[in-house]
């Protein structure tokens, strides 16, 4: 079973920045992609960004041009640099890893809380 450990959450004033990190128990090359989901208070979980081992990225429209996902394949680590944070970015952020071909499975970490205050 894949283990994903997030770090870097916290409280930040609107307009500020935070960087989340996620260390995976396996090689990034073994996953279809890794990424980040988030779940705002009282709302459903949503996909934020993904990255493949080849470096292809995807961003939700709500975070484009503000968030950057990157990876260090040698360290099995994925990062999410979050700039120009808004109050609506407040959420629990979950690291994800998708694996499998015919029936892909998405594993999630335990999450890290990001709180943006005005």
What can you see in these coordinates?
The chain is mainly β and 118 residues long. It has strands at residues 4-7, 10-13, 18-24, 33-39, 46-51, 57-59, 67-72, 77-82, 91-99, 105-108, 112-117. The chain is 0% helix and 53% strand. Strands 2, 4, 5, 6, 9, 10 and 11 form a seven-stranded mixed sheet that branches. The chain has a four-stranded antiparallel sheet with strand order 1-3-8-7, with no helix packed on it. The chain is globular and about 45 Å long.
Topology:
Layout: E1 4-7, E2 10-13, E3 18-24, E4 33-39, E5 46-51, E6 57-59, E7 67-72, E8 77-82, E9 91-99, E10 105-108, E11 112-117
Parallel strand pairs: 2-11
Antiparallel strand pairs: 1-3, 3-8, 4-5, 4-9, 5-6, 7-8, 9-10, 9-11
Classify the secondary structure makeup into a structural class. mainly beta
Total helix count? 0
Principal-axes geometry comes out as globular
| Parts with pLDDT < 50 across at least 5 consecutive residues | none
Please estimate the helix content.
under 10%
In terms of DSSP E residues, the strand content is over 45%
Mean pLDDT: 95
Q: Helix and strand string, N-terminal first?
A: EEEEEEEEEEE
Q: Report the strand count.
A: 11
Overall radius of gyration: 13 Å
Major beta-sheet overview: 7 strands, mixed
CA(first)-CA(last) distance:
39 Å
Give a short overview.
By secondary structure, the protein is an all-beta fold. The chain contains no helices and 11 strands. A hairpin with a 5-residue loop joins strand 9 (91-99) and strand 10 (105-108).
Which descriptors would you attach to this protein?
4-stranded antiparallel sheet; globular; 118 residues; single chain; mainly beta
């Amino acid at each position: 079973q894949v283990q994903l450990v997030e770090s870097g959450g916290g409280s930040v004033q609107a307009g500020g920045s935070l960087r989340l990190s996620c260390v995976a128990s396996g090689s990034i090359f073994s996953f279809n992609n890794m990424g980040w989901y988030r779940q705002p208070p009282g709302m459903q979980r949503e996909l934020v960004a993904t990255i493949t081992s080849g470096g292809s990225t995807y961003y939700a429209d709500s975070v484009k041009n503000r968030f950057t996902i990157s990876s260090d394949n040698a360290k099995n680590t994925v990062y999410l640099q979050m700039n120009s944070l808004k109050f609506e970015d407040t959420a629990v952020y979950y690291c994800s890893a998708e694996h499998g071909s015919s029936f892909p499975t998405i594993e999630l970490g335990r999450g890290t809380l990001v709180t943006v205050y005005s």
